[in-house]
Specification:
alpha/beta; 2 domains; four-stranded antiparallel β-sheet; 7 helices; about 30% strand; globular
Length: about 250
């Protein structure tokens, strides 16, 4: 198995084309779901970490929510900043590693979306991401983790898949390490006869593992759903929406 390095720095600029696969209709449905499940309203502060190119941040800001977007990829932040300016939207953008953010009880809600979790070789670093999001929330604030379901992966595992992303053909070749639940994959991007490849290493989680991790950092009222229709998580649901609440202080109760 290859060793985990900062693979995301080279991978995500090439991965940009894959965003085209998500329809505006699906994005808007997810935005409505986020607003509902996290109980956020215009004027509330929302932490989108990582924010990517603003697929979720922009429509949330358009609904009057005060969004802060964190990402480590400069080109993503630059693109999001330009889009926000064209749409006359205010989004605070910060370039940072999600393990290094240091907000203190600043946000009404936050999210880590579209399997942007499990990137780090050390399990303590992956847990640190949850700790940092917990720290960033105001008491009573809610956090959503939207991540692929390890149990679905195991039931549907394929060593390779092709798909089209705009004018780019993408091949993903995979090998799963059962001892660590880490998926090692090579992504090959083919465009106009030229190929670019990247190694990607992601730790996959089952629902029960994430419940334990949420509890360990302090979240309460932890709930999980397999779809935006609130269907239960099972081996038949590809994605998981896991939501936890930061307890209110005793003086606030």
């Amino acid at each position: 198995m290859i060793k985990n390095t900062d693979w995301w720095n080279d991978f995500f600029p090439t991965f940009r084309s894959v965003f085209y696969r998500i329809s505006k209709k699906d994005t808007n449905a997810q935005v409505r779901y986020i607003i509902k499940k996290l109980n956020i309203s215009p004027g509330n502060k929302f932490l989108d970490c990582p924010c990517g190119i603003g697929r979720i941040a922009l429509p949330l800001a358009g609904r009057g929510i005060k969004v802060t977007g964190i990402d480590i990829i400069p080109s993503y932040l630059e693109e999001l900043g330009k889009k926000a300016k064209r749409q006359d939207l205010m989004i605070k953008l910060v370039r940072n590693d999600m393990r290094r953010i240091n907000f203190k009880e600043e946000f009404d809600a936050g999210a880590n979306l579209w399997t942007s979790y499990g990137y780090f070789e050390k399990e303590s670093d992956n847990l640190l991401v949850l700790k940092k999001m917990y720290q960033a929330l105001k008491p009573g604030g809610k956090f959503m983790l939207h991540v692929i379901n390890r149990d679905w992966i195991m039931a549907n595992y394929s060593p390779r898949d092709w798909f089209q992303a705009g004018d780019i053909r993408v091949l993903e070749k995979r090998k799963f390490d059962y001892a660590t639940s880490i998926n090692h994959s090579e992504w090959c991007f083919l465009k106009e006869g030229k190929e670019t490849s990247h190694q990607v290493i992601i730790r996959m989680y089952s629902y029960h593992e994430l419940i334990a991790m949420f509890k360990s950092v302090g979240f309460v009222d932890i709930n999980g759903y397999g779809t935006i229709k609130d269907e239960p998580i099972s081996r038949d649901t590809m994605m998981m929406f896991i939501i936890g609440t930061k307890p209110r202080k005793k003086s606030d109760r």
